[in-house]
Amino acid sequence: MSPETRAMQDDEATGPAAFSLLDGEALWSRKEGQGGVACASCHASMKGVAVRYPKVVSGRAVNLEQQINVCRTGRQKAPPWAYESRELLALTAYVARQSRGMPIAIEWKEATAPFLEAGRAAFNRRQGQLNLSCAQCHDDHWGKRLAGSVIPQAHPTGYPIYRLEWEAMGSLERRLRNCMVGIRAETPAYGAPELVELELFLMWRARGMRLETPAVRP
């Protein structure tokens, strides 16, 4: 990150993600659905939660956005929010912000191993018309440049992020799908198991690194 981008990320009061966090705070306290309850009605704090997502629930990998919608439909009796909607991104960012500065804590254990293995296979699998894998860019060529931008090591420490290219907040799945479009590969739908498994593996690769949500990136 450039010093200018880092400064935007560190300035929480006037940074580009500030309005999304304010929206998330309002949604956290607002009673919703036929259940007539707010997130705050059940949860006093979300500190330490985001560093453990995605996690395995009822035999499948679930990311934080999906878990929020599970609570909406199950507890609030409200319709789920669409992926990449302003509301879902805002509340996810607000929840994750409470773990900012904590180390990512994904564990490779019996319950998570099959999903981590699937994510690792996806990370190393060549795909698309360009026949490229995630690992070829982010393991083999990190630090070099692609189309003028520095190739990072694919550590997803700050999602949802405000990306300057998008001029908006966006999820890790949006970024992953962008890469797939770039290599001309078939793009799974938001929430597809293969995307969540890849997200889980990427978070495991970033274990020990500190959460930065909501991050700002070029």
What's the layout of helices and strands?
Blueprint: H1 3-10, H2 18-29, H3 39-42, E1 55-57, E2 60-62, H4 64-74, H5 86-97, H6 113-124, H7 134-138, E3 145-146, E4 149-150, E5 161-163, E6 168-170, H8 172-182, H9 193-205, E7 216-217
Parallel strand pairs: 5-7
Antiparallel strand pairs: 1-2, 3-4, 5-6
Notes on the structure:
The structure is a single chain. Helix content is 40%, strand content 8%. It contains nine helices and seven strands, in the order H-H-H-E-E-H-H-H-H-E-E-E-E-H-H-E. Helix 4 (64-74) packs across helix 5 (86-97). The model has no long low-confidence stretch (mean pLDDT 95).
Widest sheet: strand ordering? 6-5-7
Shape: globular
Mean pLDDT: 95
Rg calc: 17 Å
Q: Which structural class should the secondary elements be placed in? A: mainly alpha
Q: What proportion of the residues form beta strands (DSSP E)? A: 5-15%
